[in-house]
Amino acid sequence: MRFKRITAMFLAFLLVLGTVPVSAEEDGTSSDEKNEEEKGSYSEKHEVVYATLDPAGEQQEMYVVNNFNIEDQGTIIDHGPYTNVQNLTDLTAVEQKDERIEITAKEEEFYYQGTLEGKPLPWDINVSYQLDGETMHPEELVGKDGHLQIKIDTAKNENAEEIFFNNYLMQITLQLDSAVYENIDAPEGTVANAGKNRQVTFSVMPEKEGSFTLSADVTDLEMAGIEFAAIPSSMSIDAPEAGGMKNDMNSLSDATAEINRGVGELQNGIAELNDGAASLYEGSEQYKSGIQGLSKQSSELVESSASIKKSLQQMSGSVESGSGEMNLSDFAKMEDGLRQIAGGLEETGESLTNLKNQYSKAHQALSKSIDAIPDYKISEEDFKALHESGADKEVVDKLAQTYKTSRTAKETYANTQESFNAIGPALDKSAGSLNEMSGRLHAMADQVGNSLDNMDLGESMEQLQQGLQALSSSYNDFHEGLTGYTSGVDEVADSYRGLHSGIAGLTDGTTELKNGAADLHNGTSELASSTSDLPGQMETEIDQIVEEYDKSDFEPVSFVSSKNEKVGSVQFVIKTESLKKDEQEQEEQEEEEEKNFWDRFLDLFR
């Protein structure tokens, strides 16, 4: 610390010595002659702006170091609203009148410093601190332990010249003592070793605002000032060689177009499948209604047949016993009843034949639609590669779902095809049985009618008796067959309900599949359209990025005054005040640490 005080006194002495005026008369030359003789020039000047901030980022002090590359030694003119100027090259006085600075350069390079007050920086900087989740003033953190979080925000200062914000790259650096800071986490920064310290660096691009967070576990907290260095982003950015990428993009464009064509074909196939399923459902609905109607009529058929059977038995018994109770009108009624039952069976047979024809058409449409579904297989790896290609994730997911559903429909149909194939022959057999029974009933009715027409009760009673016995016996066989048939119809009606429900579910599924395929095709069409010119889009994006970040055409201007010319560069070095323990307390601690064991022992007796 004594060395620091001596240095400060020596610098003050030099400043006083440098301000001693030397008149033109003492030099033996008039002022005008001297100015004319000593007029100098420079090739370019450089400005380094130094600014200090408080730990929260509030601007405190600012000064500028100006550097001139001298071509001709002599008097040169600079401009700036400085409150104080100081020669950093030699002891020659720097003259200032308002914002006009007059300096005498005698070396190849000349430096002078000017203090600025009230000049805003191009960036608004804000630094906030939290310890263990509690927001605290920076000064309150010194010496504390806990989990520290620092948040640094930079934004454009609307009250400053925007050219620096738009063209300068800012680097933010924190030097953290490894003995104090552990478990350092800076998600958007770079953490590196710098001796015993850990150096954390953040970068802010031109025209961008920055927001960064750093966290660490601290013990006996102290922290060096945060440094903000801003320099022109004047490096030239060349567009990358995109030939290979363009070829890849062409391949991707072709692939998405091919996918769109394939999905279009899939949509058409699914539409045919849905139409076939709808036709199948309509035919199944008609068959279900017919078989259920036939099942409901079965009991009536059986009751009517039983009544006819009973009548035949009674008539046959009356003729055989000769009781005379037989009424010929009963024969006429029996004939009419047989013909009515035969007609009902014929209608039912025709209905089954029509139903079978409709079912065959629906089955053929369904088979054609199912066969139209492509049989190729797409693996999970294929879908994963499509995801990674940059295709729309939602569209790819729909494609995968549609593919899986169509495969399920195809496999389900293959497993149930035997059931579908068995329905047609069963309908044929049922219609044939009905027609056969109808024919037998018509034959019986004809036999009864012929008997009535040719009967002579006085001479042919024995013949009538034999005919009735034969008819009754034949009808018994028919009635038993009819009873068995109606029982089978009831079983078919009950079992077909489940099959019809499955067909209804298939129809609903194919409808959803059709709607999903339409949405999918819309998505792949949009994807194919948006990726049709991927190489051109990529090249445009690259050009925009290069244009945004290539600042090679930036021409520096003075931060201090627009009157300054030949500005070669302007740089900013900004630093917050450090968070340190009290300086006197620090000195006493250092002195205490410098004492050896013997000194500390003697202090006990002093």
UniProtKB/TrEMBL annotation:
InterPro entries assigned: xxxLxxG_rpt
TM segment ranges: none
Keyword Disulfide bond: no
Basic and acidic residues composition-biased segments: 31-44, 595-606
Gene3D superfamilies for this protein: Methyl-accepting chemotaxis protein (1.10.287.950)
Signal sequence interval, chain numbering: 1-24
Keywords, comma-separated and alphabetical: Signal
Chain spans, region Disordered: 24-44, 577-606
Stretches with biased composition (Acidic residues): 584-594
NCBIfam families: xxxLxxG_by_4
Protein name as catalogued: YhgE/Pip domain-containing protein
